[in-house]
Amino acid sequence: MAETSAAPRSRTRGPPRKRPAKKPALVRGDAVVHRVLAAAIDELARVGYAGLRIEDVAQRADVNKTTVYRRWPEKCALVRDALHFMSDKKPVPPETGALRTDLLAIGRTLVEIAKAPRGRSMMRMMVAEGGDAELATIKRGLRKERQVIPLAALRAAVARGEIQAEADLQLLLDTFVGAVHHRLFFMNEPASPQFLEQLVDLLLTGVRRCPKRWPEKE
User: What is the CATH number of domain 99-209?
Assistant: First the structure.
């Protein structure tokens, strides 16, 4: 009688192991760029524009200096991008429905930026080295970009009839920002909510009484 082959032993298997969830891929390029820009801001605060060296930025960012030079061949390009990088939030129009409260919201944003250590360091650097031609060009570009939203708020006030169309909006904005910065950086005094309210009321009284632009002197 032929022997029957024994049935294969069944192996008891436990529940299948769950594979660990894959971590989201890190975009290495973005991480390196952010690290370099943050290092550039720190170096600007430490040594200023004239003393900034690409080698020091690379060392602080823990990258090879060729990595920095490859993306920013010139120092001015690196500084320009670094100053843009300082603002983590994109500016948002106040849209309170009234010019007075719009200006107060803009003023609070100015104070918030100026209170940050990096903001104070950058302002001191720009004031101290304002005569540098490269830095002056960077400042003009930043100024133009940062004025888009405040000027839009002023134009909306003109459309609502709060101030006349002949009002010098640029002068109004420059006076407002200049007064806040003078208070914070030159007088070294806080720009309190009461100060902002008094300043806004003073400027609005002036622009409504004397709305027209003065002719430019030749």
Answer: 1.10.357.10
Q: What are the residue boundaries of the structural domains of the chain, listed by start?
A: 28-85, 99-209
> CB of 32 within 8 A of CB of 63?
yes
pLDDT tens track of the chain, all 218 residues?
Answer: 444 444 445 444 555 555 544 433 333 468 899 999 999 999 998 899 999 999 999 999 999 999 999 999 999 999 999 988 876 555 567 878 899 999 999 999 889 888 877 777 888 788 788 788 888 888 888 888 889 999 999 999 999 999 998 899 999 999 999 999 999 888 889 999 999 999 999 999 998 877 566 555 55
Considering the domain 28-85 in this protein, what is its CATH number? 1.10.10.60
Residues whose CB is less than 8 angstroms from the CB of residue 157 and which lie 6 or more positions away in sequence, other chains included: 98, 99, 102, 163
Compute the distance between CA of residue 95 and CA of residue 104 in angstroms, rounded to an integer.
Answer: 11
CA 156-162-163 angle, to 5 degrees, is: 90
The amino acid at 84: H
